[in-house]
Amino acid sequence: MITELGHFALVLALVVALVQTLLPALGAHYKDARLMAVGEPAAVAQLILIGLSFFALMHAYVVSDFSVETVWANSHSLKPMLYKVSGVWGNHEGSMLLWVLILAAFGAAVALFGDNLPRGLRANVLSVQALIAVAFLLFIIAASNPFIRIPVQSEGRGLNPILQDPALAFHPPFLYAGYVGLSIAFSFAVAALIEGRTDAAWARWVRPWTLAAWVCLTLGIAMGSWWAYYELGWGGWWFWDPVENASFMPWLAATALLHSALVMEKREALKVWTILLAILAFSLSLMGTFLVRSGVLTSVHAFAVDPRRGVFILSIMMLLIGGALALFAWRAPSLKQGGLFSPISREGALVLNNVLLTVSCGTVFIGTLYPLALDALVGAKISVGPPYFNATFGPLMVPLLFAVPIGSMLSWKRGDLRGVMERLMLTGLVTAFALAVTFAFMHRGPWLAPFGLALGVWVCAGAVSEWGQRVKAFAAPWDEVWRRARGLPRAAYGTALAHFGIGMAMIGIVATTAWQSESVVALKPGEQTTIAGYTLDFKGVAPSQGPNYNELLGLFSVSRNGRPVVDLTPSKRAYVMPPQPTTEAAIHVALLGDLYVVLGDEIKDGGGYIVRLYFNPLVRFIWIGALVMAIGGVFSLSDRRLRVGAPRRAARASLAAAE
Amino acid sequence: MHLLRTALLAFLLSTGIAHAVEPQEMMADPKLEARARVLSQELRCLVCQNQSIDDSNAELARDLRVLVRERLAAGDSDAAVLAFIEARYGEFVLLRPRFNARTLLLWIAPLLLLGGAIYAATRRFRAAPSLAPSAPLSAEEKRRLDELLNPKQ
Question: Backbone dihedral region of A466: left (phi > 0), alpha (psi from -120 to 50 degrees) or beta?
Fold first, then answer.
């Protein structure tokens, strides 16, 4: 019964979305306030209906209703409650429902908090947003309906055990919030093109939405990477897997968009480019959805391989992306270009940021799609793997990161490069010191690695130094420093934190890639082994039982210089349903890096067990860096000047805020 | 086909989880072993989802790792090992695509994109009128500016 209500609500949502597509846009065109006013209640109603539908599906999962096909195919009555709930989006049908739920939530947010938007713009934005919803609701109802009933089954087939994990429970919602959040930027871009008008105010409205999407995307990608690190059992954290790339490309585009929208907001320049970038960022999200959901790529993420679905999503993509780009080609020439600036200026630095981010995004795009295209065109099968991406993407990041501290200190319009270099003297000294120390202590690994690490330090120190100079740390009395620190706008803290975070991530990536220690040994109970200064005593193995799996624990005592550090118990699990083995690595986190232990197979004839040990130096910096970036985004978002719907009170900004 | 896949899956699961390179596979000479590890990261495990044979736990990956080490022990150069495996398993096995007519575009695309983007960006600057400071204001102009900015009540 509840399931049918959910199904019914979903169909109703489609009808509401159709109305919301047509009426507000017509209203905006004919300047009819009553038609335009349909948009807001429709957007809210759409959210409520899709929400009902989503909770109906969740109910079916929670009570393990095995007469619903997706529940039967993807759930199991013994599964812990967390994974029954997260199982809703752990499959194709449910994840698409989550996708439209988030889409509707963003649409409703524009309707509820967009009071400060011009009426015509708001109506058009809501119409475009509803058009996207119509396409995806049609897709769900026609080609991947989660409410299809089957004759009731006694037990479900279970969720892939490697997906039964807390980090992964929240990875898809964040990722989708990021993907779908970019739809707002897309809708704003299309609405601006329909109206033929863009200005600084447009950028001011778009930026918070993009920022929110970017924060979610950053967290979603970081969670996925963290999960891969501890769950897949060989300590890797990024594989340049096509599905990872599909989430990384929108992130790169969104990062570029945040920076170009800044130029548009402050200086009314780069308008046409910013609009195009807003369209591209969401197009890349759609493409990611297509690649993952169509089964074009085989991967852990490709739940269903059904060509009909692929064709459906491809059509949606062509319609939305093609339509938007055609509109862009038609209308963009009429948009006026704004303020002038010299190459050496804040704007110039942000242009450089956009050039490098866009090119790196394009590189990932080509590397991901080239094998598919080659196969389709000439039938040749090639692989484009990590060696390609490391050789092409990596070098693009070097100038980008090098420019971060310089660019953020340059002034608008025309900058003084020499002055900035003088202000960066201390940052340069810290960087040189880090370089010298790294060379002194790390004698192995590639000779370029210390430079990579120093680059990360340069970005971090630059972020701290910029903040320090703006609050006059060490240059003014402390009470004035305190006053300035409080007066500095939140957005300034956001920028500093985000830049510091990317520097941290860079340090972590370089350190763990260049100086990872690895050891693979066969150990019998009672034997010991060493890695990176740690000594591990293998005590033996012990069986244990979890809610829906049996496991074999390896018992290790870890000591360092004769002092006990920690007991680790890596395990091998055998899940009941579906019957599948997984390994659970044991990780000891320390200041300088992670000790990562995996219990392998038993060697026949009493040869003991294969044990794999890794020491991953500074690997946590990667995810902590991502977290710091996301916190920076949230800080920026909370800035009065950007907050959605907040009255403009720019006058409050204190002296220290003057840029 | 479905039956075959199920059978394959059952087979893969029955072999349990082995993890990438195992002690008994390793070569006695650490230099050769290090080369084997580097080469393993360049080769794709053909039955896996986008993993190198160095990362993979599949039987086929294991066979390939052993093969790499056999060739190295026989005195092959790195390039010869890769060519040997490519000859048997096809170009698909190489994670770093070869530079040839078919992959030309793949390899030069980043450079083309960068060149295009830089060209587009610099064109913008060249089209923009110079921002060089103009002649300083005369005393008369300064006085008028001051009047306009600070009107006396």
Answer: alpha
Contacts of residue B129 in chain A, CB cutoff 8 Å?
Answer: 340
Distance CA A164, CA A148 (A): 24
Residue B121 with chain A: CB contacts under 8 Å: 351-352, 355
Query: What are the pLDDT digits (tens) for A382-422?
Result: 889 999 999 999 999 999 999 999 999 998 888 888 989 99
Kindly determine whether residue A363 and residue B103, on different chains, have CB atoms separated by under 8 Å: no
The pLDDT, as a whole number, for residue B127 is 56
The domain segmentation of chain A, as residue ranges, is 1-164, 389-515+621-645, 517-617
Which of A242, A355, A374 is the closest to B121 by Cβ? A355
Per-domain boundaries in chain B: 2-93
Nearest CA in chain A to B48: A299
What is the tens place of the pLDDT at every residue in A265-282? 888 888 889 999 999 999
- Residues near A61 by Cβ (< 8 Å), separated by ≥ 6? A71, A75, A84, A85, A87, A88, A94
CATH topology of domain A1-164: Four Helix Bundle (Hemerythrin (Met), subunit A) (1.20.120)
Shortest CA distance from A340: residue in chain B: B128
- CB-CB under 8 Å, A366 with B96: no
Q: Nearest CA to CA, how far is A485 from chain B (Å)?
A: 31
Q: Which residues contact residue A187 at a Cβ distance below 8 angstroms, ignoring those fewer than 6 apart?
A: A110, A124, A125, A126, A128, A129, A132
Residue A414: which of B50, B121, B131 has the nearest Cβ? Answer: B131
What are the CB-based long-range contacts (under 8 Å, 24+) for A195-203?
A195/A28, A195/A120, A195/A121, A195/A124, A196/A331, A196/A334, A196/A335, A198/A264, A198/A271, A198/A275, A198/A335, A199/A268, A200/A264, A200/A265, A200/A266, A200/A268, A202/A121, A202/A264, A203/A261, A203/A262, A203/A264, A203/A265, A203/A274
DSSP for residue A572: E
User: Taking CB atoms and an 8 Å limit, are A359 and B93 in contact across chains?
Assistant: no
- Chain A: residue nearest B133 by CA? A414
pLDDT of residue A473: 83
B2-93 maps to which CATH number? 1.10.8.640
Distance from CA of A384 to the nearest CA of B (A): 5
A342 contacts in B (CB within 8 Å)? 125, 131
Chain A residues near residue B96 by CB distance under 8 angstroms: 385, 387-388, 391
Query: Which residues in chain B have Cβ-Cβ distances shorter than 8 Å to A242?
Result: 50
Contacts of A374 in chain B (CB under 8 A): 102-103
C-beta of residue A611 within 8 angstroms of C-beta of residue A600? yes
Residue A583 β-bridge partners: A572
Q: Which of A25-29, A254-258, A266-270, A382-386 has the lowest mean pLDDT?
A: A266-270
Which amino acid makes up residue A288? G
Using the predicted structure, report yes or no on whether residue B4 has a pLDDT greater than 70: no
Residue of chain A whose Cα is closest to the Cα of B92: A382
Check whether A500 has a pLDDT greater than 70: yes
- Closest-approach residue (CA) in chain B for A414: B131
Q: What is the predicted ipTM? A: 0.85
Q: State the DSSP code for B52.
A: B
Q: Quick one: pLDDT at residue A497? A: 96
